[in-house]
Specification:
The protein is mainly β and 228 residues long. The chain has 2 helices and 17 strands.
Length: 228
């Protein structure tokens, strides 16, 4: 049962807006999340993955710690009287059968009416290498809209600077020189490989569109073609 609850929480983490500082989550395996209702009320939650508990901080500042409970879907915590249920990024707090709070992820630093969704949070690139930022006195960021027609490909190339992309439409299959490949679809964030040759192919019937951000160096190429 404990392993099941842990698995559910780990699956849900990408849907949460994580702010450990605002929820007082300081443990090695504590995950903080902030939720905001349509009326602007805020609820903070701290998921303790070791103890399988959640500490809910209500709008009036009161705190409630609840143990993990059986749930058909999502993550549910309850002491029999009070219940916190997280499902698909929506947090709900009940006392008995009365719903006292319901809200989605609240972006830190923004006012009500603004929503956000975590797409990816990682310290490694697509091939598992640690992200390394370039050291330079001449930084230059380039943002581009790239479109790849059906059956077309980028050709083998590499990037010597960190590159990040967001798929707007279509699909793109990226193959690395090692033979490893991954397919990205609309809504996916891409943490590009650095210094590794790769080729992107649109095997679908729709034009693949993506916004690409090159965190580069002035007068240095962002894309280096494979030498034939």
């Amino acid at each position: 049962m404990q392993r099941l609850i842990l698995a559910v929480i780990l699956v849900l983490l990408p849907l949460l807006n994580v702010h450990a500082e605002s929820t007082g989550c300081n443990g090695p395996r504590a995950v903080g999340a902030t939720y905001r209702s349509d009326s602007g009320k805020q609820l903070n939650a701290c998921f303790d993955l070791d103890r399988n508990t959640v500490t809910v901080v209500l709008a009036d500042g009161s705190r409630v710690m609840l143990p993990a409970a059986l749930s058909g879907s999502g993550a549910r915590y309850s002491d029999g009287k009070r219940t916190f249920w997280e499902h698909k990024g929506i947090g709900r707090y009940f006392v008995g059968e009365t719903l006292l709070f319901e809200g989605g992820p609240a972006p830190a630093g923004y006012k009500s009416g603004v929503t956000s969704q975590l797409l990816v949070k990682t310290s490694v690139t697509a091939d598992g290498k640690k992200i390394a930022y370039p050291t330079t006195n001449n930084p230059e960021v380039t943002a581009m809209l790239v479109e790849i027609a059906p059956k077309a490909e980028t050709g083998w190339h590499k990037h010597d600077v960190p590159v990040y992309a967001y798929m707007l439409a279509g699909e793109l299959e990226v193959t690395l020189e090692s033979g490893k490949h991954a397919t990205y679809k609309a809504g996916d964030a891409i943490i590009e490989v650095v210094g590794t040759l790769h080729n992107g192919i649109n095997k679908g019937k729709e034009t693949a569109k993506l916004v690409v951000f090159y965190t580069g160096i002035k007068d240095q190429a962002n894309v280096v073609r494979k030498q034939e």
